[in-house]
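Tokens for chain A. Residues wanted.
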């Protein structure tokens, strides 16, 4: 663990409850997840924070997952003025208009089928990869897809928590 991460954990542990709640909400919109992490402060290490995140993610109900997913914009349409969404969806930048149109069409079909946005850990993923995953996952059953979403949210949360505990992070 780097000294900047150690300082970042100390900074997170020292935040007032409202500021810590807001920081966690930026990482994940699930109030159950954020509450669980908040209640376990202070954390000795980043790994302890990540382990708590993973455990809290595993306990989320379907309603908690829905709340978490509501905080994510559709792939290819990051929230205006949201640097986190824009950074995470950077792989869409070079996508052709044809690919973007196909992704939008499948996103809408997915949302109609499952009742929520298609959620994937987009960090480092190309538009082609995300489209391929969408084509595969739209064929899943609801329960299978909910567990895939839980896994993807866990990956996203870990990336966002890493940014949170890095010294000087703007997360």
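Reply:
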């Amino acid at each position: 663990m780097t000294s900047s991460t150690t300082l970042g954990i100390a900074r997170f542990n020292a935040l007032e409850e409202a500021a810590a709640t807001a920081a966690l909400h930026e990482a994940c919109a699930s109030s159950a997840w954020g509450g669980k992490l908040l209640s376990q402060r202070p954390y000795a290490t980043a790994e302890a924070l990540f382990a708590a995140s993973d455990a809290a993610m595993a306990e989320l109900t379907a309603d908690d997952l829905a709340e978490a997913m509501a905080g994510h914009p559709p792939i290819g349409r990051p929230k205006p003025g949201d640097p986190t969404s824009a950074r995470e969806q950077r792989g869409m930048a070079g996508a052709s208009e044809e690919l973007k149109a196909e992704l939008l069409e499948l996103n809408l079909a997915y949302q109609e089928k499952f009742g929520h946005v298609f959620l994937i850990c987009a960090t480092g993923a190309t538009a082609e990869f995300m489209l391929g995953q969408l084509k595969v996952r739209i064929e899943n059953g609801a329960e299978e897809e909910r567990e895939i979403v839980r896994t993807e949210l866990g990956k996203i949360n870990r990336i966002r928590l890493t940014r949170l505990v890095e010294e000087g992070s703007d997360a």
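The radius of gyration is 16 Å. The chain has a mean pLDDT of 88.
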